[in-house]
Design a protein that fits this description.
Helices cover 28% and strands 26% of the residues of chain A. By secondary structure, chain A is α/β, with parallel strands linked by helices. In chain A, the strands form four sheets. Chain A has a seven-stranded parallel β-sheet with strand order 7-10-6-1-4-5-11, with helices on both faces. Chain A is globular. Chain B has a single domain, classed as HUPs (Rossmann fold), CATH 3.40.50. Helices cover 28% and strands 32% of the residues of chain B. In chain B, helix 3 packs across helix 4. The longest helix of chain B has 17 residues. Classes of the chains: A alpha/beta, B alpha/beta. At the A-B interface, helix 2, helix 3, strand 7, strand 8 and strand 9 of A face helix 1, helix 3, helix 4, strand 9 and strand 10 of B. The complex binds flavin-adenine dinucleotide and adenosine monophosphate.
């Protein structure tokens, strides 16, 4: 059986979990078995609809303590579900929760782990999973050599397909210890699209000259339902918040569309964005290295080009 | 308070990424090696700041690797720290490395173990969590701030679309990223002092190896950029909408 961990935040399932569920269902089909899910904490979402994404059963531990995240307690709870259901492959989304829990579970169960997976396992000769390495500049194929296997799937690397099937929701009975971590605040940037899960990202660099010009980025992002990002120096000089910094030492993202405005395309920046499906570069310097990694581009002044682009998008959105 | 900071060695961020031996090994010839930026800039510097604020803090660094890693370890000691431990092992499986570090952490009764959020070469982001599990301690990952008062830590960590503030008591394992501290450059005094700081070499314990690298691939080369004239930006929008179907 393939067990997928469904991640919730403040009671709602995270988008990346649906992708992980579809991936788990496909791995299960490949192995001739079925996929089930585990969800921890109290949610208000309709869990039987997780069946739409291919899982047959959802094991829930609807304990208040688990509504807040604690990697230690989550690991214990998931390990119990793994043991009871005899799951042999466990799938996580490689998000902040997955990155904290999957390694713990790996150590607890002595189950080989691949984080940052981007493809289905190759089971023709053992169990090999492709993952990104060198910050997206290369891939490694990793053999998992243990009976139990854990995969943490990079967000935006697997196509989500939906059916009308529903899943059976079964409470899993277990006691939960008190948490050693007290969550004293959750500060979410509300009304904005989460950068790691966004389909479209609009990003600005030092070429935009100052924070007062960021309207060019945010206006386009709002029209496109996109998240906003920036290059490292832009975050370092506090034109934009740190969590928007993408690249080798920031967030690595893989949206469908990445639009880079006034960013030179230094190798460390590319490392965080080169898995984007379509890259658009707007830069006044024809020699900017970013053009080598781009699919579409305009050599031109962002201050002249961007208002026209925003207008053209607005027109299309208005007629859509 | 005793702090253990995990230090790893990675190729410089501008290193050419190529593979040798039938794509089974990283081609290391001519590559410049650095301390993994998350370990150096954030984990180590924050630990040094904690020691500066409280001279009773004992700060040790640990690296699992062969003797070639010693220049990197000395460089880390030049920034700060009392002594370093190198576990003499070539093995690169995350679990095995974590088991080596956990054994030392347990033996030395450390109150706080800092790792970087991930290595920039293999991007595992696994070792911190594994150490925490092996020690049966709480783990706070992707920390952007860390403060301590007595035994009580306040840690801000990154979550999807924001931040969460956590409180926990020591002992604790924390993985560190941007925000924790500001990058420092070692000064002459630090560099001279690092030469005489103890660097203990220990042999690895027996521990499982759960995974192995079969091979590496490079991404396919892009077809090349389609340029649109700056006179007609509307054409770019049309292409993205109709040809690429990107929105
Ligand atoms: C170890 C290390 C790690 C790093 N990690 C990261 C990382 O994670 N992420 C990251 O982004 N960087 C990182 N960097 C920094 C990186 O090397 C570059 O310095 C940085 O990405 C440059 O940012 P930029 O493109 O915004 O600025 P610049 O390099 O200053 O480029 C600005 C660009 O804007 C263009 N421009 C100027 N005016 C206009 C205009 N009016 N219209 C259109 N275009 C215009 C210019 O032609 C230029 O190409 C790292 C560096 C090191 C050493
Ligand atoms: N060989 C090693 N020796 C000591 N610490 C390491 C080693 N490899 C990784 N680490 C630590 O674990 C963190 C996460 O590494 P990884 O899980 O490999 O991405 C790094 O940022 C280091 O702090």
């Amino acid at each position: 059986m393939v067990l997928v961990f469904i991640d919730q935040s403040e009671g709602h399932i995270k988008k990346s979990s649906f992708e992980a569920a579809c991936y788990a269902a496909t791995v299960a089909a490949q192995l001739g078995t079925s996929a089930e899910a585990v969800l921890l904490g109290v949610t208000s979402d309709n869990l039987s609809s997780l069946g739409n994404y291919g899982v047959k059963k959802v094991h829930t531990i609807a304990n208040e303590t688990l509504t807040n995240f604690d990697a230690q307690l989550y690991t214990k709870a998931i390990a119990q579900v793994v043991e009871t259901t005899n799951a042999d492959v466990i799938v996580f989304s490689n998000n902040t929760t997955g990155k904290a829990v999957a390694p713990r579970l790996s150590a607890k169960l002595k189950a080989g782990l691949v984080t940052g997976a981007i493809a289905l396992p190759d089971t023709s000769n053992g169990f090999t999973v492709k993952k990104t390495v060198f910050s997206g500049k290369a891939f490694a194929n990793i053999n998992i050599n243990t009976p139990k296997k854990i995969i943490a799937l990079n967000p935006n690397s697997f196509n989500v397909s939906i059916t009308t099937d529903t899943a059976e929701v079964v409470p899993f009975n277990t006691s939960v210890d008190a948490s050693k971590i007290v969550v004293s605040a959750i500060n979410k940037v509300t009304g904005e699209v989460s950068l790691s899960e966004a389909d479209i990202v609009v990003s600005g660099g030092r070429g935009l000259k100052g924070p007062e010009n960021w309207g060019l980025v945010t206006e386009l992002a709002t029209l496109l339902g996109a998240a906003t990002a920036c290059s490292r120096p832009v975050a370092d000089i506090h034109w934009r918040p740190h969590h928007e910094h993408v690249g080798q030492t920031g967030l690595a993202i893989a949206p469908n569309l990445y639009i880079a405005i006034g960013i030179s395309g230094a190798i460390q920046h590319l490392a965080g964005v080169n898995r984007s499906k379509i890259i658009v570069v707007i830069n006044k310097d024809p020699e900017a290295p970013f053009f080598k990694a781009a699919d579409y581009g305009i050599v031109g002044d962002a201050f002249e080009v961007m208002p026209k682009i925003i207008e053209a998008v607005r027109k299309i959105k208005a007629t859509a | 308070m005793k702090i253990l900071v995990c230090i790893s060695k990675t190729p410089d961020t501008t290193a050419k990424i190529a593979f040798a031996d039938n794509n089974t090994k990283f081609a290391a010839e001519g590559v410049q090696w650095i301390i993994n930026p998350y370990d150096e800039w954030y984990a180590l510097v924050r630990a040094i700041e904690l020691k500066e604020a409280n001279p009773a803090v004992v700060l040790h660094l640990i690296n699992v690797g062969n003797a070639d890693n010693e220049p990197i370890i000395r460089k880390a000691l030049a920034l700060g720290g009392d002594e370093a431990i190198r576990i003499n092992s070539e093995i690169s499986d995350s679990f095995n490395v974590a088991a080596q570090i956990a054994a030392i952490a347990k033996e030395g009764n450390y109150d706080l173990v800092f790792t970087g959020k991930e290595t920039i070469d293999y991007n595992g982001s696994s070792i911190g969590g594994m150490i925490a599990e092996l020690l049966d301690l709480p783990f706070i990952s992707h920390a952007v701030t860390f403060d301590i008062e007595g035994n009580n830590a306040t840690v801000t960590r990154e979550i999807e679309g924001g931040e969460e503030v956590d409180k926990a008591t020591l002992p604790l394992v924390v993985s560190c990223q941007k925000g924790m501290a500001e990058q420092r450059i070692p000064n002459m005094k630090g560099i001279m002092g690092a030469r005489t700081k103890p660097l203990k070499v220990m042999e690895p314990i027996a521990a499982d190896i759960l995974t192995s690298i079969a091979s590496f691939d490079l991404p396919p080369v892009k077809a090349g950029v389609k340029l649109v004239s700056a006179e007609n930006p509307e054409e770019l929008v049309r292409l993205l909408h109709e040809e690429a179907k990107a929105f």
